């Protein structure tokens, strides 16, 4: 297995670990995976910082009831930057309001910082 393939497998594994941590609201894992300057663009177009996003997950204001990847995780690696794209079925509760399961495309950008991959940007897009 070449280095690029190995890095791609690692990035895919990290993406799956993030999904599991979001479902479990595992804040220790989530804080480590997301860079301090992380930004999420939600499917509604709202931009959230790491503090805003993880604070809402930790407080239960954003509660992932289900998040299932239903596509391959496509990976592009450029030295210390990786880009991934995947589709997921998400069922979520926002501030006590439950939203039915729906499909979304996600694109995430990660940077290798001090030897660890951390997500810096994530954008979700609803599938009509």
Which features does this protein show?
52% strand, alpha+beta, 7 strands, seven-stranded mixed sheet, 128 residues, globular
Q: In short, what is this structure?
A:
The protein has 128 residues and is an alpha+beta fold.
Explain what you see.
The protein has helices at residues 3-24, 27-33, 50-59; strands at residues 34-41, 47-49, 62-69, 74-78, 81-94, 97-113, 116-126. The chain is an alpha+beta fold and 128 residues long. The relative contact order is 0.19. It has three helices and seven strands. The mean pLDDT is 94. 30% of the residues lie in helices and 52% in strands. The longest helix has 22 residues, at 3-24. Strands 1, 2, 3, 4, 5, 6 and 7 form a seven-stranded mixed β-sheet that branches.
Evaluate the radius of gyration: 14 Å
Q: What is the mean predicted local confidence, pLDDT? A: 94
Stretches where pLDDT is under 50 for at least 5 consecutive residues are none
Q: What is the chain-wise order of helices and strands? A: HHEEHEEEEE
Distance linking N and C termini: 38 Å
Q: Beta-strand level of the residues, as a percent range?
A: over 45%
How many E strands?
7
Main beta-sheet annotation? 7 strands, mixed
Helix-strand layout with pairing:
Layout: H1 3-24, H2 27-33, E1 34-41, E2 47-49, H3 50-59, E3 62-69, E4 74-78, E5 81-94, E6 97-113, E7 116-126
Parallel strand pairs: 1-7
Antiparallel strand pairs: 1-2, 3-5, 4-5, 5-6, 6-7
Helix pairs in contact: 1-2
């Amino acid at each position: 297995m070449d280095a690029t393939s190995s890095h791609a497998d690692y990035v895919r594994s990290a993406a799956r670990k993030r999904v599991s941590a979001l479902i479990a609201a595992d804040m220790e894992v989530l804080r480590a995976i997301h860079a301090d300057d992380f930004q999420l663009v939600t499917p509604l177009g709202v931009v959230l910082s790491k503090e805003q996003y993880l604070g809402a997950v930790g407080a239960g204001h954003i509660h992932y009831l289900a998040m299932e990847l239903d596509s391959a995780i496509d990976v592009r690696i450029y030295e210390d930057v990786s880009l991934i794209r995947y589709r997921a079925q998400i069922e979520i509760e926002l501030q006590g309001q439950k939203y039915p399961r729906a499909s979304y495309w996600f694109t995430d950008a990660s940077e290798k910082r001090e030897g660890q991959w951390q997500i810096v940007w994530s954008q979700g897009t609803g599938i009509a």
